[in-house]
Amino acid sequence: MSRIDLTCIIDDDPIFVFGARRIMEMADFCSSFMIFKNGKDALDNLKPILESGRQLPDIILLDINMPIMDGWEFLDEFIKIECNQEITIYIVSSSIDPMDMKRVENYENVSNYIVKPISPDTLNIIKKDFA
């Protein structure tokens, strides 16, 4: 199974970020992390990386309910940016609203919708998808 180099977590909940990062470290899920508190921070930091050709995240774990710019707004802007590297995006949310789960189907660059919390089993599924 190939190792994921860089995982990006976009989530405003510090407890979730801490827990997800800890579980990923224990599972030897990836080599490093990028963490952003909302979609705007993520876009402001990822866009220059995309444009310069520097290393991009292999996987983005994206919350949808965040202040300033939510996950849906982030996706709408992110898909407009030209990118030569495939980035696998997972929505990771506490929302069990069927409308949110259905809405994810409108984004072909989103691999799956994961309901929080993240578990080691969830990470194994993501890693299998990535391999």
Explain this structure:
The protein is of the alpha/beta class and 131 residues long. The protein has one domain (4-130): Response regulator (Rossmann fold, 3-Layer(aba) Sandwich). 40% of the residues lie in helices and 23% in strands. The protein contains five helices and five strands, in the order βαβαβαβαβα. It has helices at residues 14-26, 39-52, 71-78, 98-103, 120-130, and strands at 4-10, 30-36, 59-62, 88-93, 110-115. The chain has a five-stranded parallel β-sheet. β1, α1 (14-26) and β2 form a beta-alpha-beta unit. α2 (39-52) packs parallel to α3. The longest helix is centred in the middle third of the chain and has 14 residues, at 39-52. The protein is globular, with a radius of gyration of 14 Å. It starts with a strand and ends with a helix. The mean pLDDT is 90. InterPro entries: CheY-like_superfamily, Sig_transdc_resp-reg_receiver, TCS_response_regulator. This is Response regulator. It comes from Winogradskyella maritima. Keywords: Phosphoprotein. Pfam families: Response_reg (PF00072).
In short:
The modification 4-aspartylphosphate is found at residue 63. The protein is α/β, with parallel strands linked by helices.
Question: Could you outline the blueprint of secondary structure elements for this entry?
Answer:
Elements: E1 4-10, H1 14-26, E2 30-36, H2 39-52, E3 59-62, H3 71-78, E4 88-93, H4 98-103, E5 110-115, H5 120-130
Parallel strand pairs: 1-2, 1-3, 3-4, 4-5
Helix pairs in contact: 2-3
